[in-house]
Design a protein that fits this description.
The chain has one domain: P-loop containing nucleotide triphosphate hydrolases (Rossmann fold, 3-Layer(aba) Sandwich). The mean pLDDT is 95. Helices cover 33% and strands 21% of the residues. The protein has 198 residues and is an alpha/beta fold. It binds guanosine-5'-triphosphate and magnesium ion. The site of magnesium ion has 5 residues, from helix 1.
């Protein structure tokens, strides 16, 4: 499947104002600066669709994009942004958890992890919360262009081993670079397969 059209629909702070859940939806989450917005742009072949920045904390709203006029990609704010006030962090947390718990059309949440990092508690705790709340998710490792081939393999194997200390089964894993457009067709194929089930 090719992405032929990608259109911005709406930005929200309130999950109740999001588009009616009539078509399948896929959202992107992860630490600030991990590359969520860049991945949405790379997948949709449109550098200007989602706003990106070298500074963390760029995406602040729930952003819906309509793809091929048939399903949504959703760009979410990142978590773990150190420079944020406690109150702002709590507000973000509430916005994101309300969104995740209410979207009946959310087929899969893509949890992005920087491929250079070892498992961090903020991501692990978040994934535990997803599992407890039965929110389907997969992991996408990002920015592999910053690593050598050997380092990619080594880091991801170590990541899996660490996760297996806590998880009986690992989620599906995708390995990507938005910069070099790697691993994108696998994600599109995965989305296509799930969308047929909606
Ligand atoms: P927030 O909206 O702040 O939570 O960040 P985000 O997760 O949406 O990250 P964003 O897409 O804005 O990218 C953050 C920075 O990482 C930008 O400077 C991007 O150019 C860079 N970046 C994103 N993906 C890649 C990648 O695959 N490779 C490289 N080298 N840089 C990347
Ligand atoms: Mg962003």
């Amino acid at each position: 499947m090719e992405i032929k059209t990608a259109e911005f629909v709406i930005s929200n702070t309130n999950h109740r104002m999001c588009p009616a859940p009539e078509i399948a939806e896929y959202a992107f989450i992860g630490r600030s600066n991990v590359g969520k917005s860049s991945l949405i742009n790379a997948l949709s072949n449109n550098k200007k669709l989602a706003k990106t920045s070298a500074k963390p904390g760029k995406t602040k709203l729930i952003n819906h994009f309509l793809i091929n006029k048939s399903w949504y990609l959703v760009d979410l704010p990142g978590y773990g942004f150190a420079k944020q006030s406690k109150a702002k962090r709590a507000e973000f947390h509430e916005m994101i958890s309300n969104y995740l718990l209410s979207r009946t059309n959310l087929m899969c949440l893509f949890v992005l992890i920087d491929s250079r990092h070892s498992p961090q508690s903020i991501d692990q705790e978040f994934m535990q919360w997803l599992a407890e709340n039965k929110i389907p998710f997969v992991i996408i490792f990002t920015k592999i262009d910053k690593l050598t081939k050997n380092m990619i393999t080594k880091n991801i194997e170590e990541y899996k081993l660490e996760m297996l200390k806590q998880w009986s089964k690992l989620p599906e894993i995708f390995i990507t670079s938005s910069k070099e457009k790697k691993g994108l067709s696998e994600i599109i194929t995965y989305i296509k397969k799930l969308t047929l089930k909606y």
